[in-house]
Amino acid sequence: MARTLYVDLTSELPLAVAWTKEHSRQLPFSASQALNLSVQGSRFMAGTREASALAALAAMTKAKLDRPKPQTVTGYRATAAKKRALVVDILPKDKPFDRKRYLEGNYLGGQRVVKPFEIAFAANSRGAIPLGTRFVPTGAVKPDQYGNVRKSQISKILSGLGNTGRTGSNHFIGKPQGGNRPAGVYRRERGHKLRPLFLVDSSVSYQASLTVFTTVTAKLRSTFDLYLRQQLSKNVRDRLRSRTSGSF
Fold this sequence. Notes:
The protein is α+β, with helices and mostly antiparallel strands.
């Protein structure tokens, strides 16, 4: 004779209902935690900063730019998501100086932002070159280890400026007299020779070489779900324990 097996789950239902409801309550907060961990990591959780979107951006920037400075590589920052605002903004750092002009053109493309030394050159050209003009260094200018113009070179040029004639100073900014030489920054050398140091170039632009958007998206896809399940499980467990202890 077959026997019927009865399973009484009545005593387990309250816990199951509480577990389900608590998942719904903790989901927004857990999602904000997971988003923050995916984007910037946490100093309280080992390995999360190294696996974050900001770390991935730094690695990608170092790989794709030509000899970037360390402050350019680590030039990204992120706002924090909250449970009522599940949004994170990733932006170029603006302290202690603004990294936007170094980074934005490399991930958006378009015309390069005018650099401070270019503004100084145009301002000291005695009206020969308008503000907003871009200057491209020639082979006569030795760059630093990061491929940038040295501040000492700019200072030396600006301290020894004169007119477009061939006497009286070491450098001038403008268009040389006679011939068809382009406007720029020139150095006077022996034998009344002029050597171009920087030439005016109106077509200087960035190629969108930094894959910022795809890098961040790939990192979120690989980490967010893991962090969400991890944080949701922990938050629900902690709240239910608190409830059973009488402080819920």
